[in-house]
Amino acid sequence: MTAAHEPIALTLRDADATDALGAALARTRPAQAVVHLSGDLGAGKSTLARALLRALGVQGAIRSPTYTLVERYPLSAGGEAWHLDLYRIGDAGELEFLGLDGDEAVLWLIEWPDRGGGALPAADLRVELAVDGEGRSARLLGASAAGLAWARAAGRELAADL
């Protein structure tokens, strides 16, 4: 059994494995959650967010929020998923102009969360992605009780899928 402080370490050999992780996260998602996505440029943060949103039933284009900073997607189960990419902000104070009051958001997917300082909701789950040869590595870290349960459940789901 994984201890509370130990991450769930995963190897994502290809794009299909990243999609499988997104699907596992969607199937095991708590009703309300904040996910901080970390990793260098090209590590797969947007790809994972897109896979998770697609698995939650989002139809149509799922755009990267690189230039818009936030994209909002209605979820069939109610509420919205908010996908933020904070790479281009210079100061956490800039978030004030995005109108992120959070009432409609039941799922936050935040890329480059360190740039948001204390202006962001606390993470339930931290996902650290890195390039690993031809694929990616992922570490799931529960940052709350719900996030820890989510990381464990998603890890089990993914192991069953692969």
From TrEMBL:
Gene Ontology biological process: tRNA threonylcarbamoyladenosine modification
This protein's superkingdom? Bacteria
The cellular location(s) given in this protein's UniProt record come to: Cytoplasm
Recorded hits in Gene3D superfamilies, A to Z, give: P-loop containing nucleotide triphosphate hydrolases
Entry's Gene Ontology cellular component terms: cytoplasm
Alphabetically sorted, this entry's keywords are:
ATP-binding, Cytoplasm, Magnesium, Metal-binding, Nucleotide-binding, Transferase, tRNA processing
The Swiss-Prot or TrEMBL record describes its family as follows: Belongs to the TsaE family.
- Specify the protein name: tRNA threonylcarbamoyladenosine biosynthesis protein TsaE
Q: Which organism is it from?
A: Lysobacter silvisoli
